[in-house]
Amino acid sequence: MSPQHNPTACVWCGLPLPKSLWHRDSDTTSTDDDAYCCFGCRFAAQVSADSGETGKVRWTLTRLGIAIFFAMNVSMFTMALWSYDFYEVAPTDTLASTITDLLVWLSLLASLPVLFLLGVPIAVSGCLSLRDGRITSDLLVIAGVLAAFAYSVVSVLSGSSHIYFEVASLVLVLVTLGRWLEAHGKLQTNEVLESLERLLPLTARRISEGSSTDSEVDTASLLPGDKVRVLAGERIPVDGRVINQAASIDEQLLTGESQPVIKRPGDDVASGTLNLDADLVIEVTRAMSDGTVARLVKIVREARQSMGHYQRLADNVTTGFVPFVAVVCAIAFAWNLAVASLADSIMSGLAVVLIACPCALGLATSVAVWTALGRAAERGVLIRNGEVLEKLARIRGIRFDKTGTLTTGDARITNFICLQDEDRTRVASISKLLAKRSTHAFSRAIAKWKHTPELVGEDHSADLASIIQMQTIVGRGLIAELSDGLRVWLGSRSFMLASGCAFRPDFEDAVTTALTDEAATVFVGWDGQTRGAFLLAEAMRPDVGSMLDELRALGLDLKVLSGDRPERVSRFVFEAAGDQGGLNFEASLLPEQKLQQLREARSQLESVMMVGDGINDAPALAAADVGVALGCGTDVSRDAAGVCLLANDLTAIPWVIELGRMTRKIILQNLAWAFGYNAIGMTMAAFGLLSPVVAAIVMFVSSLVVLANSRRLHSFDRSSNPETTTVVECRASDVGMRSPARSVTKETVA
After folding, report:
1. Distance set, CA 586 to CA 69, 516, 589 (Å)
2. Taking Cα atoms as reference points, which of 132, 107, 102, 103 lies closest to residue 28?
3. How many CB atoms lie within 10 A of CB 158?
């Protein structure tokens, strides 16, 4: 058998396993891949086994049913014995003595199946965890049950009537049912991921070369380069490229946009999206395991395995909790043995073990974080890990990029100005050649731009020399070297001047005359001369106003950080903020200046969020406490951002901040409950004030309280969050707009 690495997550619920006490992550341990965080997950996995193991599933359920039947009989026999305490029957009477002996022996015999059916699996689970270096409460539970059972057996053999078979039996039933419900409660947090995975069809129609018919194959077997047919009304099984005709594609799953998108030959399509109206042929570009949906699910799963501050706290406490309980149990046993009987000592120790089950503590943070991550994914928001979720609750200020973030990113060319003695078509074609290699909003606008009627020629970019080398200067522009030796610059005014491209006076006058406050500019030049200028217009996103209102109500400090001209940013901010004000700005910022602004904000506000389009804002997104990237619907691997919005929905920003606050609130409630319940319960049990059965019931209820409280996040909505009713007054005089102190130049970032 080949050795396996020490597993780190439960194969049933996916929660991180308790730390190994004597194995490092690199150590080899059990060859069994099925590692579970508790007996409940092991039991739930058996009950919910694959359809090929129907017999095993039925036997597991039957085993639980039989155990419950015998446990009820043990309780009935014990209740009959208790009747001697209420009726005046002398136990020395021959008939009474015979009945007593019969009930005692029946209790012993009826408890044996319960011990075998439910006790052995718990013992096995505890031993397997112990082998891998994890001490769990299963060992303490089975030790206490065996102690109660052994004491009762000795009492029967010695002729004593002090037996606790009903305690051992009911504890085993309650613990098993409690762990079962806990395991299923944890598993319910996978609902969103499972629903996403189910969207992908299991089979696809692969088009075979030289064949007139399609062959049905498993979607997982498709490889890049394969061609598949997708009929109208079917979901696209893998990421690919349209090669035959145009079609309307519903991308609401990934982008949140309700309107279908027209995809034409050459356009990329994502797995999980819906083909509405065409018989499409798609060339596979990514295998199913590397597709958009698979990567989305992978990111959320990885987020659940990472730990935030509260999760690490709970994990560290849980690691030492079981040994601590063992010590308390030993002290309680010794103290009760000194002041009471051996039977009372055993019952007290067993009650301590049961009431101090660490399930509630282990679930306090994990299930809350899991549920919040799933709810966010359902809303179209990807949160990288639990630590980001906790940071969201501490955000005190937000800094926004403008172009592509607060604006739609669909800029359009409003004017094209060229040197009078220059070939306008050639300048435009060279510009488009460079722009096609960039993802910036302005570059995309130039790349998609159709020549105006005055250019009379066609796009000559295909006839030009090809690009052999290109460099992107983040926040400034592009430098390209063509195969014919021409070196071209495309970018902002300062970028052109710094690159040695001068502005001829007549060209400067023409640009100044055409330029308005609303227009952005991108220049192109080579051979020491600026040859052309593009004037672009942007549209504000329709939800900017409502987002700003909601963020103001949360009391957040807001500011726009833009590389655009101050007059353009000032006009934009005025339109966005409206009469409410409360939105400052800094303009003409280079990327390094944005980073400096973020550092200053963090020193003042402690925790700051940066919102950008995820394309050229990577440094700022990485420098912020929480980076939020828009436009991730078809690219869920924007690594610089802690939060990725699948849809360009700005109202998701206040929503996710409130989700973070609500999650922290629930985590603190769960931890307070878990610590308080354990402290009070263990104290009462240690002094003999709780019977083991009552302790088992309370343990069961405690875990359900934590699960139910965490599940509130599953239906989280801003309208149901009482914190949304808080209104923060923002006076224009306090947070009014101001222009930067630096010199004003008519330029913008390409």
Report:
1. 73, 20, 7
2. 132
3. 8
| pTM greater than the 0.70 cutoff | no
* Dihedral Cα 480, 483, 484, 488, nearest 10 deg: 0
CA 700 to CA 106: how far, in whole Å?
A: 28
Which residue in 132, 401, 557, 617 is the catalytic one? 401
Give SS3 for 40: helix
The answer to whether the beta carbons of residues 431 and 534 sit under 8 Å apart is yes
Count CA atoms within 13 Å of residue 555 on its CB side.
12
Reported as a single tens digit per residue, the pLDDT across 242-261 is: 988 888 888 766 665 666 77
**In 3D, which of 30, 71, 66, 64 has the Cα closest to residue 44?**
64
Instruction: Look at residue 467 and give its three-state secondary structure.
Output: strand
Tens of pLDDT, residue by residue over 404-457, are 788 876 778 888 888 888 888 888 888 888 888 887 778 888 888 876 544 444
How many other CB atoms are there within 10 angstroms of residue 342's CB atom?
Answer: 15
Q: Evaluate if residue 726 carries a pLDDT over 50.
A: no
- Tokens standing for residue 475: 């926040």
Q: Does the annotation count 401 as an active-site position? A: yes
Please tell me the distance from the alpha carbon of residue 256 to that of residue 528, in angstroms, as a whole number. 46
Q: Which residue has the tokens 């206490």?
A: 144
Structure confidence by residue, pLDDT tens digits, 280-316: 889 998 888 777 777 777 766 666 566 667 666 666 6
